[in-house]
Specification:
Elements: H1 3-18, H2 21-31, H3 42-53, H4 61-73, H5 78-89, H6 94-97, H7 103-113, H8 116-133, H9 138-144, H10 150-158, H11 168-176, H12 188-202, H13 206-218, H14 225-231
């Protein structure tokens, strides 16, 4: 048995022991998830993760990525997806996690997860961290914003959502690629992401707010009412 398989079994056993059937049913219904939940509350999941990750180590980046993939694709409970994401975010592996070489892994998880809870966490905290560490990744985000899959596009839009200082030209381009009339421009999750990205930037000072105001005014005919409402929330 490999170390990752042993860890995976321990995680699953602990989730079952800590879970609750009533909570699991409620969580699955709320998230419209085909993958069941064990029913573990987030605070308890974080506590368990501290135990699971206390002595976890990998020989190299390939082993780290393989472990994340195994936890993700072998999941029986949705919480195992959350654990895989947390392993990717762990401070011990930050050097690997913020390398552009991690982007194919993140895209794989985004395409496979294909729902807002996992996509947004990966986009804002993992993809966003890569972009912050390597501005050249902006071209990859431009490509993602024109992907054939809605959730990859959403990831590109949200990739700077946690950045206080961001590339406004990149933000404009990834949004413009997803306005009304684009392949996914009518989709709620794209329109919501556009509004959130603009709203977040508007909170970063008067100049950022002025930029968002101009962008909304200049694109008012192509932005959905939902996107405009979210973008103007703090203006």
């Amino acid at each position: 048995m490999t170390a990752t398989t042993s860890l995976q079994r321990r995680i699953r056993d602990d989730l079952v022991a800590a879970g609750g059937s009533e909570r699991a049913v409620q969580q699955q219904a709320y998230m419209h998830s085909a993958l069941p939940y064990a029913g573990v509350a987030r605070p308890e999941l974080r506590r368990l993760q501290r135990d699971w990750f206390a002595e976890v180590g990998f020989a190299d980046v390939q082993a780290w990525q393989a472990a994340i993939r195994q936890l993700w694709h072998g999941a029986r409970f949705r919480e195992e997806w959350y654990v895989a994401i947390s392993l990717a975010q762990h401070r011990r592996f930050r050097g690997w996690a913020t390398s552009a070489d991690a982007l194919p892994l993140y895209r794989e998880l985004i395409e496979n997860g294909a729902w807002w809870d996992v996509v947004d966490e990966i986009s804002q905290h993992l993809v966003g961290a890569v972009l912050a560490a390597d501005p050249d990744v902006a071209d990859t985000m431009r490509a993602w914003s024109m992907a054939d899959q809605l959730w990859v596009r959403r990831s590109a839009i949200l990739s700077q959502e946690r950045h206080r200082t961001l590339d406004e030209q990149l933000l404009a381009e990834v949004i413009e690629n997803n306005l009304t009339g684009s392949p996914f421009g009518e989709e709620f999750f794209i329109r919501k992401a556009i509004g959130w990205a603009l709203r977040s930037h508007s909170k970063h000072g008067p100049e950022a707010a002025a930029w968002v105001r101009r962008f909304v005014d200049e694109h008012a005919e192509q932005l959905s009412p939902l996107s405009i409402r979210e973008a103007r929330k703090y203006l």
